[in-house]
Every structure is written in C-alpha cells, then in structure tokens.
Amino acid sequence: MTDPLPISLSRLGRLALAGLALTCAGSFSPALLAIDEHAQLEAKTSEELNKIKDLTDAKNWDGALNLLQSLQPNVSPTSYDNDVIEEVMAKIYMQKGDYPHALEAMEHAVRLSDAYNYLEPREVQELVYYLALMYNQEAGTIKSLALQQQYLSRSTDYAKRWLDHNDKTGQDPQRQEVMLFYANVLYNRAVLIPTAIDLKLMKEVEAEIQHSLVSINHPKETFYILLLAAYQQEGNFARAAEILELLAKQYPAKKEYWQQLVPIYLNLAFDKDETKGREFNVRAIVTMERAQALGFMRTQKENYTLVGLYFNVGQFGKATELLHAGLKNGSIENIQANWELLAYSYQQVDKPFQAIDVLKEASKQFPNAGQLDYQIAQIYYSLEKPQEAYRSLVIAVNKGHLEKAYAVYNFLAYVAYEMTKFDEALVAVNKALASPGSEHETHLPKLKAAIEEALKERELLKSGVRTQ
User: Structural domain of residue 460, as residue ranges?
Assistant: First the structure.
C-alpha cells in the first residue's frame, strides 16, 4: 500500500508571494495611516518616500533600497518613520525574491508596531501572513534540521497569530487557507525526522483539522487528506479507513482513494479477533467491487486479490468462479500457479472432476509441466481410480519439471506396486532414492524392499516353487 502524503503547501506559499510581488508595486505610498494620530512621518522622510513609486515602477529595486537605507541613519531606530521604512524595504526585497532580507525587515516592522502601535491592524496582519508563508518556504531551502525546525516553528507561530487576530468566520476563503496552511506546517514539523515522528505535534495536527472541519460548511478535500496522513503516521488505520470511506464517497471518480482503502482494510484484517478480521476482509471485498463498478481496480493483480479475499472469508465457490472466469478472459494472470489454485478451489467445493479438467486445460497451456499431471494423479487416486492415476504419473515423470521429483517417483512406485507392475515399481523407487531430498524419506527403503520381495515371489511362482 502506497501511503497518501499530505499536499505540500510550500508551492502555495510561493504562489502567494508571487501574487504579492505583482501587487506591492502599486502600494508603496508613504501615506500610511497610523492608529496613533501623533505618529506621522517626518517631512524629510515623507519627501524621500515619494520618490519610491517612480523607482519601483521602473523596477529599479536596488535604487529604491539604496534610497531607503540612506534614510535610516537620519531617523530614530524606534520611530514611526523607521517602521514604515522597514515595511517598504520588506516589500521591495520580496519583489527581488530576496526572502531572507525580506524576513528580517518584515519582522523588524512587526516588532516596532507591536511595541508602539504604529501600523494599522490590517497592515500587521498582512505582514504576519507573509512571514508565516516565507518562513515555511525558506525552511525548504536549508539543510540544517535544527534550523528547519526553527523556521517551521516560526511559520506556525505567525500563522497561529494571524488566525487569533482574524475575526472572520470559517467560511472566509483566506481564513480557510491559513487554517489549512497552519495544520500542514504543523504536520511537516512532526515528520521532519521520519525516524522519530513527533506524536504530540501530530495530535495537534488532528485537533486543528477537526476544529477546521466543524467550523467550515464545505471543507476542502485537502483537510481530509492531511487528517488521513496524520492517522496513518500514528498507525491509526481504523480512523484512516473512516476518512478514506468519506473521501471515496465524496470523490468517487478518484481511483487513488479506492486503491488506498483496500490495503488498509487488509491490514486491519490481521486482527487477533477472527470475527473482526472477517469483517474487515468483507469490507475489502465490498470496496473492491464498488471500485470495479466504477471501472477502477481491474488490473490482473487486483482481480487476483479479490479472489484471495473470497478465499479468506471461506467463499470458495465465489472465489473459484472469479478465478476461472479471470483465467479464461485474461483478467487474471495466466500462470501455472493460478491454474493450480483453481484446481485446488474446485477440490475445496467437492468438485474433483472439475479440478481434473482444469489441470488438463492447464497442461495444454503449459505442456512441459509434469507437476500438473502429478496433481491429476493425486486426485484420481483419491477417487479410487489407480489406473488413471498410474497413467498420469507416467506422463508426469516423462515431462519432468517436478517440484519434488522423489515424491512423484515414490507415488509412481507405490501405485505400480499396488497394480502388480513390480518391474516399473522398482525402476521408480530407485529413481526416487536417487533424487535430491529423498534421504529423509525413511519409508523408501522399506518400499523398495517390499517391491524386491514381490519380484522374488513372482520368479519363484514362475519356476513352480511354492512360497509360504
């Protein structure tokens, strides 16, 4: 089973930043209103900032940055002017794609506003929003695990702050986006070290998604995918199955949900409680048949899996029917082992002659496989038809390709002995003794001795000597 992975939101972050870069150029106006009516730009600062728009319109980012940096020595580090300068510098750095410097300037602007209440709440929220996105994005560009964890932690901190200061309902698209982003980055933090999953953080992921699901009328599919991944990381396959059932119901045309649900049920079927195990096998059967009705899960391997599931629940008749049809129409792989399984299936439902017919049909498909004739002989012998068993055994040893040659020669020797074909029985038992693996078969020397004794008696009878 291929486990589902959470949809990475790092791409979302990059798209959002690109969108910001397209819109920021028109927003570089120094006429930024402050909540504190006494916080106003110095005249010199205001005059210089008026030049920024021309520079940014010309995409002269370095010129704009040089101008802003030249202003900073002339203003107080804790002033409103410096806060505005840092904010505008952050946006220009973003235009350049220089996110490390953009982060530094943006965080400085937020800290100043937090301390002195300089910027409007919506401006701070915008900065916090992009800080969350950029820290997540930058985490993917560094190799140090410790630094990655630090960046991801900052990303979730800023996302949580944005959510705490946003008063819109869960139906707001941007709030939904940040809720999903926050849960996803929490997940990435939890699995940052794959060999040491942070289960405490994973529980936070679950809690955040559950909260989102009850606060949004129509949650995005991605919320469920992320919750599914969290359950799988915890090994909570029962809950994972519930989520996949929901996804399969809501998105029946997506075959990957059906393909993931069946293996989960198969995993759950290993329950020590036989009743529960059977229940999950039945669920796997129903899931596969629902998927096949939609045109999915119809590969040879998947069709064979369905046959196996019917065997697991003791439905040998149905399993046999599917296996025979599959071998006939090619929907199940045409290999010798599958024909042997089909013959075994007919035996399980007490249809030995159908089993023989299947093995004979398989012999046409695999004409050199003596193993098939050996199995035919076994069935004939169980039906008290030694003559037919004998003929099949002769064919088997002539063809070869036997799994355990000594066992086949042993069987041939025994049947020939019963039919008083002592010469052939002796040849067969000698070949059995000469075959690899026979050294552990203690009965073979005894069988040989019995055959030799029978031959002696026959010779004595031919010479007219009575035997006791």
Answer: 386-468
